[in-house]
Amino acid sequence: MSQQGIREAEQLSECLKDEHFDIIYHTSLSRTRQTAEIINTFHQSKFQVIDSFIEMDLGDWEGQYLDKMIKENPGIYQQWLANPDAVIPGGESFTQVYNRIKPGVDEVLASQYKNILIVGHAMVNRAILGHLLGIEPGSARKFRMENCALSKFLVIETPKGPHILADTWNNYSHLIVT
Known about the structure:
178 residues; Rossmann fold; 7 helices
């Protein structure tokens, strides 16, 4: 995790210090575990790994700068932007991510926990948003997601099952530029 990432996680931790979390879900990637631990500074929450929320597999694009990918692969990049089913070479499509996270979302919703924090990844967070709100993959990936931004969903139990409301999405006002 970079120094900037640590600083942003500390700022998010400060923002959430008065909140209560029954559990913090994170992936097995070290940066999500480290972010979860920093956020947990003011809490004594349990942790649980949920690997269906692991970040999108960028395949051949992993670690590349966006402008370089666009320059070297303009057709593939434009196809990927236009079609949520377009697979990144050696990686996966957004629709594959969307479908991959569904069992994890259902597991979280079915858990005994009521105050849940998920430390995740941008593309996966978009897929979670889509699944929770019934938004198709092509539209769900159009929502912006900053690093260490805060999104909050409310789950209201009804006789027909959970009713989910997006209370906050991509709030990064707690990030102080230094």
